[in-house]
Design goal:
The complex is a heterodimer of chains A (249) and B (78).
Chain A: E1 12-15, H1 21-32, E2 36-41, H2 44-52, E3 60-63, H3 69-78, E4 82-87, H4 102-125, E5 129-138, H5 152-171, E6 178-184, H6 199-206, H7 217-228, E7 239-242
Parallel strand pairs in A: 1-2, 1-4, 2-3, 4-5, 5-6, 6-7
Helix pairs in contact in A: 1-7, 3-4, 4-5
Chain B: H1 3-11, H2 36-50, H3 56-61, H4 65-77
Classes of the chains: A alpha/beta (249), B mainly alpha (78).
């Protein structure tokens, strides 16, 4: 029987921001494809829920704030070598540029961008990433493809992530490690829960999507699984658009 | 929170509309210059100056500047 190149059977995958949204769906769907998961997130209760929903056994959970250096280093020390890494943790704070504060900008950039630099550097130094592993960074269409009022800092942090993924794709290619990013459009998660943008505005925005709806977390998770699997063995340095056709018009 | 200060802060978000055109009774969404960017600016100003997070729905429901003022005051006191 031919082997299935899309499976994640036997692969150890680390997913950040796995307490909710895209991270949670990615972790669960990866487990359904046979992967062993290492999940991390700041909210212990919600991370536990994700852990309980994973298929199969031999999964590990780290309820830590990766923005804390000692916690990040401690977690990396405890990690096994991984076959895949999904840099997914991210927050948003829609606000016109003129009203952003230094601390808000720092928080957005730390969570969305700098933490991934620290995590990857630490994992590479401590040799926790296997040869031929696959790294996926979760960016956004707001990261340089499109923009909207209020998304300047969020978009800048995501654009930084997309650029980082390309240069890492080149630098790590010698070890066979692939690095790709995904750029989702608006996905139905909690990321917009505390924002000032009303439901009415969001419903109007849905009409801008040719496929007629916002994305679901699994729409992004399935693409991430493809990029983590052997089926994408010759794909590196790409930025996969997952946007229901939004950027077509 | 003072009405005069609020009026000044509110009026500052407009480029073409004079401060004298903005009173407590002004129906702010009827102002010619009003648009969604100014709405976002008012939300940003309210957060920065009063630490209150207004939503788009709040802006939609309030008619006059005074109603907005009272809503913000109520949120401060919450």
């Amino acid at each position: 029987m031919a082997s299935n190149p899309f499976t994640l059977e036997g692969k150890i995958i680390l997913v950040t921001g796995a307490s909710s949204g895209i991270g949670k769906a990615t972790a669960i769907d990866c487990s359904q494809q046979g992967a062993n998961l290492i999940i991390t997130g700041r909210n212990q209760d919600r991370l536990d829920t994700t852990l309980r929903n994973l298929d199969g056994e031999n999964h590990i959970s780290f309820p830590v704030d990766l923005c804390s250096d000692p916690d990040l280093i401690d977690m990396v020390d405890k990690l096994p070598m991984v076959d895949g890494l999904v840099c997914n943790a991210g927050i948003a704070n829609p606000k016109l540029f003129a009203f952003t504060s230094k601390s808000e900008v720092d928080l957005l950039f730390n969570t969305n961008f700098f933490v991934n630099i620290d995590l990857l550097r630490e994992m590479i130094k401590k040799k926790k990433i296997k040869k031929n592993a696959s790294i996926v960074m979760v960016s956004s269409i707001a990261g340089g493809l499109i923009t909207s009022p209020g998304s300047s800092i969020y978009g800048a942090s995501k654009a930084a992530l997309t650029a980082l993924s390309k240069s890492l794709a080149l630098e790590l290619s010698g070890k066979g490690i692939r690095v790709n990013s995904v750029s989702p459009g608006m996905i139905e998660t909690n990321i917009m829960n505390d924002s000032s943008i009303s439901e009415k505005v969001l419903n109007e925005d849905k009409k801008n999507y040719p496929l007629g709806r916002y994305g679901k977390p699994e729409d992004v998770a399935y693409a991430i699984i493809f990029l983590l699997s052997d089926a994408s063995s010759w794909i590196t340095g790409t930025n996969l658009l997952i946007d229901g056709g939004y950027t077509l018009r | 929170m003072e009405m005069n200060d609020f009026l000044a802060n509110f009026a500052e978000q407009f480029d073409e509309t004079g401060a004298d055109e903005i009173t407590p009774h002004t129906q702010f969404k009827e102002l010619e210059e009003w648009d969604s960017m100014i709405a976002m600016a008012v939300i940003g100003m309210t957060d920065a100056s009063y630490n209150v997070k207004l939503t788009g729905d709040d802006i939609r429901k309030m008619k006059t500047v005074e109603e907005l003022f009272l809503l913000i005051q109520a949120k401060i006191n919450d």
